[in-house]
Design brief:
Layout: H1 3-11, E1 15-24, E2 30-38, E3 45-52, H2 66-86, E4 99-105, E5 108-114, H3 134-146, H4 173-178, H5 183-186, H6 188-196, E6 202-204, E7 213-215, E8 222-224, E9 231-233, H7 235-246, H8 249-273, H9 278-290, H10 292-306, H11 315-329
Antiparallel strand pairs: 1-2, 2-3, 3-5, 4-5, 6-9, 7-8
InterPro entries: CHK_kinase-like, EcKL, Kinase-like_dom_sf
Pfam family, one: EcKL
Protein name: CHK kinase-like domain-containing protein
Length: about 325
């Protein structure tokens, strides 16, 4: 089925026209396209995520393999499950595009989504000031509080990643093998276990970089996109990844304590708003704060295996990683 026919039927529209290719999907697995719509009461503009996964694609950094292909295919299935079965529970404080329709066949999936540009989230940012970042930090805190679990069932979160984030150790054996020998490589399992065995778990976005947030024109409202790696984790995994995507080393050195205070203050407020006790809010904040450097080191482990010359391999990241390793050693 062509995208135009699918959209026309899904929205009961008289005319559907492709207006813009927003971007290609990573490693050539499809594209994200904007369409204009006429004659529908549902929308005048929509975004289609057209996913094609019939064969192994070429990875831009040479990491193509059947294992990597299967991981990527599963990530799109997870995203479809997220939009179909989980996303409707989110509030305006965790704004994201609404799923309008979906279509599946053997080698292709269509996810028809609300056009966030038309909904007032048409601004994209390459960087934010510390104060401007508050809206994203608040989004993350609300999301993590919303899905907080103190007792995790074996089947939770059904249909999503049992361990969220795209750099999760068990899904990156080749990258781990490529790491230089040293304390971080040897400690990778201990770092992973520290995250996995945290008492308080939640859903993490799993790819919470600045580029995956869409802003209102005044930068006081935000919505998130790209939920391929949503799954179980701890909130500071998203927080560490977002901060690393948003701020320079000098900004992080100067403002990290304040940024952490912003997140944990809002997280506690949001946990209380769900009806949990002050003791629970305090316990979650204390546990996750203690795991922040561990979460940072977990991503740094991935970078050192995947692309050690990447700009994210910074002195600040190495410092945070050393803090985590010292913490594991009990120093």
């Amino acid at each position: 089925m062509t995208p135009e026919i699918f959209i026309k039927r899904a929205l009961n529209a008289s005319l559907v026209a492709r207006t813009e290719t927003i971007q290609g999907l990573w490693s050539g697995y499809g594209e994200i396209i904007r369409f204009s719509v006429e004659g529908s009461d549902i929308a005048k503009s929509v975004v289609l995520k057209a996913i094609q996964f019939g064969q192994i694609q070429n990875h831009p950094r040479g990491w193509q393999s059947s294992f990597a292909h299967d991981r990527k295919v599963n990530s799109y299935k997870v995203e479809a499950n997220w939009y179909q079965d989980w996303s409707s529970g989110c509030t305006e404080n965790e704004r994201l595009p609404k799923l309008l329709a979906s279509f599946y066949q053997e080698d292709e999936t269509y996810l028809l989504l609300e056009d966030l540009d038309s909904a007032g989230f048409g601004h994209r940012c390459d960087f934010l000031s510390v104060e401007e970042s508050t809206v994203v930090i608040n989004w993350l805190a609300s999301f993590h509080a919303h899905f907080l679990q103190s007792e995790v069932r074996d089947d939770w979160p059904e249909g999503l990643w049992p361990r969220g984030t795209y750099w999760h150790l068990a899904t990156r054996p080749d990258e781990w093998s490529s790491m230089p020998e040293g304390d971080l490589k040897e400690s990778a399992e201990s770092i992973d276990k520290s995250i996995d065995q945290a008492c308080y778990q939640t859903l993490v976005h799993g790819d919470a970089k600045l580029a995956n947030f869409c802003f209102g024109d005044d930068l006081t409202s935000v919505a998130a996109v790209d939920f391929q790696y949503v799954g179980r984790g701890i909130g500071v995994q998203d927080l560490a990844y977002f901060l690393g995507s948003c701020f320079s080393e000098s900004e992080l050195n100067e403002h990290l304590d304040y940024l952490l205070e912003l997140y944990f203050s809002e997280l506690s407020r949001c946990i209380l708003a769900t009806g949990e006790s002050p003791d629970t809010a305090e316990a979650v904040a204390a546990e996750w704060h203690g795991l922040f450097s561990i979460a940072w080191a977990d991503f740094h482990r991935f970078i050192l295996g995947w692309s050690p010359t990447h700009k994210k391999n910074t002195l600040f990241s190495r410092k945070m990683t050393e803090q985590a390793l010292s913490q594991l050693r009990g120093a």
